[in-house]
Amino acid sequence: MSFYNKGDNAFPELSGNAKAVSFISKPLLQIFKHYMDKKDTVHKQIKGLLQTSIKLDSIITNNFNHWKWPAAEAELFLQTTWEYLTFKTSLANHFQDREHPIRLFHVTIKSHYLVHLALSVFHMNPCLAWNYSGEALMKRVKSLCCQNVRGTPWLQVEPKTMRQYVYGMESLLDEDRAWWR
Fold first, then answer.
1. pLDDT band at 177 (very low <50, low <70, confident <90, very high)
2. Where do the H-state alpha helices sit in 36-70?
3. Distance (Å, whole) CA 145 – CA 164
4. pLDDT of residue 7
5. Residues 88, 49: contact at Cβ < 8 Å?
6. Burial class of residue 25 (count of CB atoms within 10 Å of its CB; 0-12, 13-18, 19+)
């Protein structure tokens, strides 16, 4: 399996399941450290981004089985999240401010979701609502939309899809009526 998807873009993009991609962080950091220009500010920021990403993954792995994290671990997770997002935003701005902008390190809804997880870490384990589940949800929503487009007038696609989505969420959240529990 290749993680690189050339697509229509001139620059290859890393693709694949986020959980699978997270395992390449440490080898990627080692390779980057070997080839980086130690005087280049952007290279230093990329190195910092990779290091904080690895640190976040290790904090999550070390506290995976706790319902609520210890206060020191929660504070470390929050601080590391801010560091990670600071590096990411700085790099995104650097590549966006060029004459020909490149969408590297762009900030997405996942960055916003990470902020919410970091802020809630004092009350619950973020693994209970982790981002990987959002990707699985989007895959199901995409499949639902594709099914509803076939044979449906275009003005009725959105209401039909939303109605099915709401029914699905209602049955999932209504534990009394859930036949699979």
1. low
2. 41-62
3. 10
4. 58
5. yes
6. middle
